[in-house]
């Protein structure tokens, strides 16, 4: 609790006791009014004061002003206990709200408690503890067991296991040894690591995740904007209703006190705070719960969109498959096998495409990157590289057609990577990928959640794509697509009315990620493109996080809807009953503060994790 919250709590306790005393004293008339005025002023002086100031600024529909007017009105018509109680409960509501909002803010910060405090940097053989922001690229840092990895980097020496749970939601530790990448924000569990930094703090995974989560509050859901607009006319309408109720009926029956009392009920119920507070709180909680599972949501609007998605399109390589190809066969035309692999590996040595990385990994010898003088990635097709002064093309059949190489397909199943020197065909390498272990269950889980259609969009061969789709239970496959054609397919589906999420690995599918209603990127661990262009980032590469994200989104939306229906329902009911004389000020207190507290408690359920 902050100091202010503590002070308010004491005032609440004091005012509650004083109200009790006033109620027990056998007083009548002016004595009773004075007895209740004491707790009223103890708890309400600041409300009265800021109401007065607000009138000076012309803010008449401010909730403080309305509370002041309602309670002063109640005093004026002899409802002293009610006046004190309304003010007391109003402050209880405010107090509760500030605790709840503060707590959820803090809990997101705690959930994302991944900010490294310091880095131990090795400079001229000396160790020194510095702020992670002061470490430059390429410096050597030491990370002891139990410490948080301050910056992204590569292990120079040592081996250990890392706890990445706070980043990915994955509870199994990851083993690292020399040459492995370590991600900032994870915790070093067992061994001392010496690491060469590969990013400055601002560009590190941890800094970017924190920025992303912190900015997520800015992107409001449609219902949030709707509630804000609604609140803007709800309050004036109810207040005008109150004025009419206080002025018109008594012209006919002359019972001014009774109608003013009924009108005061309107003023108390006119505050839309239950909605204005609980709806953003729900989204905040939902985003927090998701980030605890390694699902980063960049804004409430994406959570909202995800809840109603009916079509999910997947990229294949690296998304549904592991993107780690094994080389199954090397079929050169004239040259020896190892020469073909050598050319391919050298040409691919600058590329980060999964195909390229696999071919490089299959090359056992040393790869001299400096043999490459010029490279150009041809998205969805392959690569053009000048190796030893000669131009080579490495890629799929489409690329061979473009350069006019006389290629032929392979009888083996798998992804076929052709190699050509200018237009001269040199042969091909057959590689095969494996499906991710949870890919199939993810597709099934999405179907079970009522997703109408799952689609695979891939640049790979038709046959490979169909095999994968069949094994996974994906409904539709579009193969041999260039990145631009993936965008076209997605646009086609959007035109057909699909509410579409696209899931990709961030490697040359940025345009599709941004075109879909919700762009979901896999494997943000280190992939810059993914973090930038996606709306939702799945921190570990697991497709099974997606159905979980959908569930969390739907739960959040359900709670938001519950709160809207509940809060408006109760308020409208009390307005109606109040106008007819069936509800008194105590009902109004419930309609204001009771509803606020219940709505906040309900909204806080969004923060809870869901288990299947
Ligand atoms: P996906 O849609 O399955 O993620 P991409 O669009 O990234 O695949 O690539 C489509 C195809 O283009 C790959 O299957 C491969 O045949 C070829 N390709 C793309 N990049 C490269 C590369 N760097 N080297 C060789 N082939 C490549
Ligand atoms: Mg891909």
Keywords:
Rossmann fold; Calcium-transporting ATPase, cytoplasmic domain N; alpha+beta; binds magnesium ion; seven-stranded mixed β-sheet; 20 helices; Calcium-transporting ATPase, cytoplasmic transduction domain A
What does this structure look like?
The chain is α+β, with helices and mostly antiparallel strands and 612 residues long. Among the domains are: 136-199, Calcium-transporting ATPase, cytoplasmic transduction domain A (Distorted Sandwich), CATH 2.70.150; 285-321 and 436-552, HAD superfamily/HAD-like (Rossmann fold); 323-435, 3-Layer(aba) Sandwich (Calcium-transporting ATPase, cytoplasmic domain N), CATH 3.40.1110. It has a seven-stranded mixed beta sheet with strand order 10-22-21-20-11-18-19, with helices on both faces. Helix 4 packs parallel to helix 20, helix 7 packs antiparallel against helix 9 and helix 8 packs parallel to helix 20. The longest helix is centred in the last third of the chain and has 36 residues, at 545-580. Adenosine-5'-diphosphate is lined by residues 315-318, 348, 351, 353, 355-356, 380-383, 394-396, 415, 417, 458-460, 507-508.
How is the secondary structure organized here?
Elements: H1 3-24, H2 29-56, H3 63-76, H4 80-111, E1 119-123, E2 126-130, E3 140-143, E4 153-157, E5 160-163, H5 165-168, E6 174-176, E7 181-182, E8 187-188, E9 193-197, H6 205-215, H7 222-253, H8 256-269, H9 273-292, E10 295-297, H10 300-307, E11 311-315, E12 326-332, H11 337-348, H12 354-362, E13 372-378, E14 382-387, E15 390-395, H13 397-403, E16 415-421, E17 424-432, H14 439-448, E18 453-457, H15 462-472, E19 476-478, H16 483-495, E20 500-504, H17 510-515, E21 518-522, H18 528-533, E22 536-538, H19 545-580, H20 585-604
Parallel strand pairs: 11-18, 11-20, 18-19, 20-21, 21-22
Antiparallel strand pairs: 1-2, 1-3, 3-9, 4-7, 4-9, 5-6, 5-8, 10-22, 12-17, 13-14, 14-15, 15-16, 16-17
The chain binds adenosine-5'-diphosphate and magnesium ion.
């Amino acid at each position: 609790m902050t100091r202010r919250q503590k002070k308010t709590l004491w005032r609440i306790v004091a005012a509650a006791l004083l109200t009790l005393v006033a109620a027990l004293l056998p007083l009548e008339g002016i004595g009773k009014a004075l007895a209740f005025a004491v707790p009223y002023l103890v708890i309400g002086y600041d409300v009265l004061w800021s109401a007065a100031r607000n009138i000076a600024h012309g803010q008449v529909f401010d909730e403080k002003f309305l509370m002041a007017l309602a309670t002063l009105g109640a005093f004026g018509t002899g409802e002293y206990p009610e006046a004190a109680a309304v003010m007391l409960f109003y402050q209880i509501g405010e107090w509760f709200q500030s605790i709840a909002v503060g707590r959820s803010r803090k809990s997101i910060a705690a959930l994302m408690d991944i900010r490294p405090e310091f880095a131990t940097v090795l400079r001229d053989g000396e160790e020194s503890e510095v702020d992670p922001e002061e470490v430059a690229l390429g410096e050597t840092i030491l990370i002891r067991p139990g410490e948080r990895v301050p910056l992204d980097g590569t292990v120079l020496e040592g081996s250990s296991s890392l706890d990445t749970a706070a980043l990915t939601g994955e509870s199994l530790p990851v083993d690292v040894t020399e040459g492995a990448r370590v991600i900032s924000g994870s915790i070093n569990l067992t061994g001392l690591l010496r690491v060469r930094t590969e990013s400055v703090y601002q560009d590190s995974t941890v800094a970017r995740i924190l920025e992303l989560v912190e900015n997520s509050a800015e992107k409001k859901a449609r219902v949030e904007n709707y509630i804000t607009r609604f609140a803007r006319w709800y309050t004036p309408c109810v207040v005008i209703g109150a004025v009419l109720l206080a002025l018109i009926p008594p012209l006919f029956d002359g019972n001014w006190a009774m109608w003013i009392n009924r009108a005061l009920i309107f003023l108390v119920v006119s505050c839309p705070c239950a909605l204005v507070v609980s709806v953003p709180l729900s989204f905040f909680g939902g985003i927090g719960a998701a980030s605890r599972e390694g699902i980063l949501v960049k804004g409430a609007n994406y959570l909202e969109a995800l809840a109603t998605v009916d079509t999910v399109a997947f990229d294949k390589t690296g998304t549904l498959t592991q993107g780690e190809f094994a080389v199954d066969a090397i079929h050169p035309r004239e040259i020896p096998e190892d020469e073909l692999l050598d050319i391919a590996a050298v040409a691919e040595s600058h590329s980060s495409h999964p195909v390229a990385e696999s071919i490089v990994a299959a090359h056992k010898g040393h790869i001299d990157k400096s043999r490459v003088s010029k490279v150009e990635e041809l998205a969805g097709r392959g690569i053009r590289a000048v190796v030893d002064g000669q131009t080579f093309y490495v890629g799929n059949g489409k690329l061979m057609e473009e350069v006019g190489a006389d290629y032929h397909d392979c009888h083996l199943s798998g992804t076929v990577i052709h190699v050509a020197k200018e237009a001269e065909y040199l042969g091909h390498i057959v590689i095969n990928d494996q499906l991710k272990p949870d890919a199939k269950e993810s597709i099934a889980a999405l179907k079970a959640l009522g997703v109408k259609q799952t689609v695979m969009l891939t640049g790979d061969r038709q046959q490979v794509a169909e095999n994968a789709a069949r094994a996974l239970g994906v409904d539709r496959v579009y193969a041999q697509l260039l990145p631009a054609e993936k965008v076209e397919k997605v646009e086609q589906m959007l035109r057909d009315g699909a509410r579409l999420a696209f899931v990709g690995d961030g490697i040359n599918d940025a345009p599709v990620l941004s075109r879909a209603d919700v762009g979901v990127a896999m494997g943000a661990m280190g992939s810059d493109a993914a973090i930038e262009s996606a709306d939702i980032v799945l921190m570990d590469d697991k497709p099974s996080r997606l159905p979980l994200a959908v569930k969390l989104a739907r739960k959040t939306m359900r709670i938001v809807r519950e709160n809207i229906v509940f809060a408006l329902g109760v308020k409208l009911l009390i307005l109606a009953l109040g106008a007819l004389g069936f509800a008194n000020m105590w009902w109004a207190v419930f309609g204001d503060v009771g509803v606020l507290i219940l709505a906040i408690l309900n909204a806080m359920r969004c923060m809870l994790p869901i288990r299947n």
